[in-house]
Amino acid sequence: VQLQAFGGGLVQPGGSLRLSCAASGFTLAHESIAWFRQAAGKGREGVACISNRWQGDFTYYSDFVKGRFSISTDSAKNTVFLQMNNLKPEDTARYYCATVRGDCGSYSSTVYHYDYWGQGTQVTVSS
Question: N or C: the chain end with fewer CB closer than 10 Å?
Fold first, then answer.
């Protein structure tokens, strides 16, 4: 199982970035996948989570990104995306994609149990 996140970079406040998470060794659509971030000197923060059910994809967001970030899956590419709009300096962190144990909706908050994650990609929001 491998997860590789990329697409980070330096962006000005109010700008946008799209992060990608490429998976190998398993099928992303069969797992719940989350993005979490970790800023320097701080703990992990769950950002977004997506679970595939027979009705379709269900997505969950932390309050601090709701309305600005969007998580989605491209099953054909076995890739999960995180579209980040209206970025703020406080969004600066290293962003990781990870497999989540169980369904995203089974958690009462965005504090998830992660089984596998990659090396992450740095996002810096600064003028």
Answer: C
∠ CA 74-20-77, rounded to 5°: 30
18-49 confidence digits (pLDDT tens): 999 999 998 887 889 999 999 999 999 999 99
Strand order in the sheet with 2-6: 2-6, 17-24, 79-84, 69-74
Q: Report the distance separating Cα 64 and Cα 17, nearest Å.
A: 16
Q: How distant is the alpha carbon of residue 127 from its chain centre?
A: 24
Indicate the average pLDDT of the chain: 94
- Give the Cα separation of 27 and 101 in Å (integer): 15
Lookup: tokens for 98: 């990870």
